[in-house]
Amino acid sequence: MIPNFKPQLIKRRSGPPPVKPAPGSKPPQTSSTRPTTAAPPSNRFKLTASTKPRTASPAARTESTRYLSPPRPRVQNRKRKVSPSAAIVWDTDSDEDSDASDDSNARKRAKTSSSMEPPSLQRGLKPDYKRRIRYHRKSSEPTPDAKNDVDRPIEPARLIDSIKLTREKWASHYKSPFPGLEKNLVVNLQYPSPGRPETFEIISPPPGSDDVNPLDDIYYTIEEIIQNYLPAQLVEDLKLSDEADGIVRRLKRAVFKNQPDEFQSALSKFNTIIKDNLDSISDEIDNMHALPLSLVNRITIQVYQRTVSYRSHLLRRVKGKETTYGELKPRFAHKIFEQTNLNSQCVFVDLGSGVGNMVLQAALQTGAESFGIEIMEKPADYALDQASELRARAKLWNISIGPIKLLHGDFLNSPETTAVLQRADVVLVNNKVFPQNINFDLLNKFLDLKPGAKIVSLESFGAGAGKQGSRNENNIFNIYEEEVFESGSNMVSWTDASVEYFIATKGC
User: Fold this and answer.
1) Which end of the chain is less congested by CB atoms within 10 angstroms, N or C?
2) Where does the chain cross the membrane (predicted)?
3) What is the pTM of this model?
């Protein structure tokens, strides 16, 4: 232990501070009051008397400095908050978005099928009345000869059908759910747009496998279409969501009873309904002002499965892991977009964008102009593949996305990054394991941010609550107001526990 250093015990509260009882009175007894024991020592780390000075061991010093960041001056306007949706209960599957009720189209029908995504994923961001969600070609969309960076041209739209994945060499262990057929059943699924249908080979991976499951993909996709694209009266009249005889139930029953003809018949009926109601579907999309998270989740999963999932093991072999920490999950991205008020009029920047998940979700869910840069070649390459697939798949879902720009390079030495930071509204940087010099250089980069811009980070650039350090009046970060939040459980790839994250707003 460092001599004369007195550790502070930081108490987190998710509710209002307790009321002190009047002198001589007993504290009120409530159902949440816990029995108390003898008061702990004033210094809980010093349980026995000792006059011998102690110093930290080399192992302890190594552990305490594993994640280096700039010295943390005390910032007076720094606030500590617990995100409302993460307070007390860390399992955010039960969370409900406070703004979801503002958009009646987001939850116009109750879900009844067991194939649906968790109900918590139905919440959406605040309605964005300036965004046109229905697909329309923009002049800003890339052409085949457009350049994304010096290494590789942009691939504007390249749809990968499910059948391509299940017929490649890595899918040889799949089995048909319809034993007895000479060839595997091949079907088409029509999406809520005039575009061509997607082709699926009806086979199943082994139980417990993480491989692409064409049946689940079809079930979830149909449910999202019924939930978000079809007029409520049509769904009710045709009983498309009926638990006993709805379209998804019919498909599952056909698989259970080994009736491939019935499966194909039910799916063909659904495809006909979509084609016959494209005008009504267009009206429904035009009435949308925010995409439900479940729909965003379904599309991003499809994109990831068709471009990254089957070769994600190769990412474990990349060099440069000293600046790599993991990925933020879609629900965490949703929470960040909500807290920073990201919308279609904004510019989103991800410094260290990996395979591009956050950049793509920002463009899809909010319609924002989204920029990402990644220093490692393989993740950056996968990101371009994902962007190409998202452009094609969003069109298939009849959704217009924001402009996407992905670069392979060093964000500290990229002229394009410097230029986009001057326009950025929200900057994300997962700096959890960044060395000290990178965090210092980033602070200098952030001098170009405009007033009101927000920085979202996994490690504070300013003062840590309860940490020792003297205030430096000349510190760059004094022009920011920083708040700290808890993510809630299961929000990041490296742990199931809740993690801290920080949102700093640049002042004038």
Assistant:
1) C
2) none
3) 0.74
